[in-house]
Amino acid sequence: MSFADFHGNSGVVHRLREMLARHHLPQAVILAGPSGSGKYTLALMLSKAINCLSPSTTDGLPDFCGKCSNCLRITQSEDLEARFAEAVEAREALREADRKETRLFVQTHPDVLIIPPDPPQMMIKVDQVRRVIESIYFRPGEAKERVYIFTDSAFMKEAANSLLKVLEEPPEFATIFLLAENPGELLPTIRSRSMIVSLAALPAEQVEKYLAKHRPDWNAKQRALVARLSEGAVGRARSFDLASYTAARTQALTILNSALRAADHSELFKVTETYRAGAEGRDKTENLLRTLYSLLQDLAFLNSGTPELVRNTDIQAELKRLAESVDFAWIALAADRLAEVERGMRRNLLRSLSLDAFATALERG
Ligand SMILES: [Zn+2]
Q1: Residue 159 in this model has a pLDDT that exceeds 90
Q2: 209-262, pLDDT tens digit by residue?
Q3: The predicted structure's pLDDT at residue 352
């Protein structure tokens, strides 16, 4: 692994490495960009480049070896979802009194602390920032610099104010990365004390090229589909669960077809019967609703003469047939009814019932 493995945004990465070369990387950096654009990956790569024990150069700029003990330990944090799940599980195993006092962190290197949003509110809490304050003024033990990575920009108010105090006078041997889908969520005073670096989403063609290399198990049609559904985010594209998306889409199409053709509902009921209560049923239903939205949107694109925006490119022919039998009013009605199903889910109505109601409500006279 090296910076060459970072996909897209090469200009931004180049500038950051130039700053590293001149030891001018600011102590607080906001990495802004859509989910999956590589904010976390880049923060880890920069952490390695800062702390690599046998640093190299590529293209005349600082890089990291990926093999020294600092690089290796930082790399262990790469699978953030898995590390986060482990931390949640460890907390669940605590006695209730301790659980309440315990905040979530991901730490695979003693000098590199990763601060994820803390469930159930999924926000950064003041006790998490306190942990940063407790350590940041001590020189690092094994790294050259202490690194802190906040993986989300949703801060509780008190937490944001505490962070602000750190940013007013950070020690010279610490670097703080703030990852933000929407940097506007951060306090203006936090933004003004940080350098904001924006990562752009990649064009679909570039994501397709990336997938050709990293997901050879998908064919060209599948890669085109995933590239469009993940909206330019390579991270999201690479780990996209194509099997469950396609399964949900088949069922979503059955529901739409049943609504439009109306004659016989046995297929529809076969589908909706499989949606039941419980956590698993909830995920499955949410997945289905998202997929229904994406299909309705594609139908709207087709009807408005912008087929190039269609995301479900692999079933264009089928979508065109469907689009011919609906108009804008119907699509708008369907979207409204979907929102009703979502509200019903929140009230915990029997899911299959509200799905049946959704489909029958869309029938055309
Ligand atoms: Zn190294």
Answers
A1: yes
A2: 999 999 999 999 999 999 999 888 888 898 899 998 999 999 899 888 887 876
A3: 64
How many C-alpha atoms does 99 have within 13 Å on its Cβ side? 11
**3-state SS, residue 64:** coil
Binned at pLDDT 50, 70 and 90, residue 349 comes out as low
Distance 69 CA to ligand 1 centre (A): 7
Cα(80) to centroid(ligand 1), Å: 20
Minimal CA–CA distance to 289: which of 335, 356, 226? Answer: 335
Residue 284 has pLDDT above 90, yes or no: no
CA distance 33 to 55: 28
Q: What distance in angstroms lies between residue 113's CA and the mean position of ligand 1's atoms?
A: 18
Q: Examine residue 55 and say whether the peptide bond preceding it is cis (omega within 30 degrees of 0).
A: no
Helix (H, G, I), strand (E, B) or coil at 213: helix
Q: Provide the 10 A C-beta neighbour count for residue 92.
A: 8
Helix (H, G, I), strand (E, B) or coil at 7: coil
- Give the 3-state secondary structure of residue 313: helix
Contact predicate 187/160, CB 8 Å: yes
Q: Which residue type sits at 124?
A: I
Average pLDDT score over residue span 321-348: 85
297 C-alpha vs ligand 1 centroid, how far in Å?
A: 46
- For position 35, what pLDDT does the model report? 83
SS3 category, 311: coil
CA 305 to ligand 1 centroid distance, Å: 52
| CB distance 275 to 286 below 8 Å | no
Residue 73 CA, ligand 1 centroid: distance in Å: 10
- Map residue 29 onto helix, strand or coil: strand
Confidence of residue 283 (pLDDT cuts 50, 70, 90): confident
Handedness of CA 298, 300, 258, 287 (dihedral sign): positive
Q: In this structure, how many other beta carbons lie within 10 angstroms of the beta carbon of residue 69? A: 11
pLDDT band at 315 (very low <50, low <70, confident <90, very high): very high
Distance from Cα 1 to the centre of ligand 1, integer Å: 10
Ligand 1 mean position, distance from CA 43 (Å): 15
Q: Alpha-carbon distance 55 to 13, whole Å? A: 17
CA of 71 to the centre of ligand 1 (A): 4
